[in-house]
Design goal:
single chain; about 200 residues; alpha/beta; six-stranded mixed β-sheet; about 25% helix; globular
Length: about 200
């Protein structure tokens, strides 16, 4: 697979150490069930992504809310993992969280060492984004909200989505299609710039 390197510079990021080794950062990709986390990691990763998907069975009936994602046949039960080199001196390690409530206990483990997060949202099920938004707000982890524009879904004004999610003014919100590498890359660049901006403000 071709490396998914960005042609867009991330302004103001920390200089690489004099050893010449690139800076590595851990990023979480979170959001509700079926919102596109596995798809995003797979579309952007420069290595073959690690996936821990299992087939949905009738045992999940009444446990997992599949409203709005009726055609979904698999679900992540642990995490997704991928990597992207944004620049020669900046590598992001991507960890996709499981979306179902019964697996939320794993988020604390996955969040250890993470410098930032992407919260994927689906306008058809915006309420499913609240747990991830609340989680990163409570932890003080910088995050961006990326609205994944599914085929056939109503196009919403970004400001309306911001109001519906009750986001603070400083939280970036971007519209995207995570099936497209360039779109997913733009989300990550926005997230990195936000993390760097927050670090500068807090320094």
């Amino acid at each position: 697979m071709d490396y998914a390197r960005s042609d867009t510079a991330v302004s103001g990021h920390a200089e690489a150490p004099e050893t010449g080794r690139p800076i590595a950062a851990k990023i979480l990709i979170a959001g509700g069930f079926g919102v596109g986390k596995t798809t995003m990691v797979g579309s952007i990763s420069e290595i073959r992504p690690l996936r821990t998907e299992e087939t949905l069975t009738d045992r999940s009936l009444g446990v997992d809310d599949t409203a709005g994602v009726g055609d979904k046949t698999q679900t992540t039960v642990a995490m997704d993992f991928g990597r992207i080199t944004l620049q020669d001196d900046l590598i992001l390690y991507l960890f996709g969280t499981p979306g179902q409530q019964r697996f939320w206990f794993m988020w604390d483990e996955l969040a250890v060492g993470a410098v930032g997060a992407v919260v994927l949202a689906d306008v058809r099920r915006l309420a499913d984004s609240f747990p991830a938004v609340d989680y990163f707000e409570d932890r003080g982890t910088p995050f961006v909200v990326a609205v994944n524009c599914f085929d056939g879904s109503e196009r919403k004004d970004p400001e309306d989505v911001r109001i519906a999610l009750d986001l603070e003014d400083g939280v970036p919100l971007v519209m995207c299609d995570v099936r497209r590498r360039d779109s997913a890359k733009r989300v990550l660049i926005t997230m990195v710039e936000h993390v760097l901006g927050e670090a500068e403000r807090n320094s």
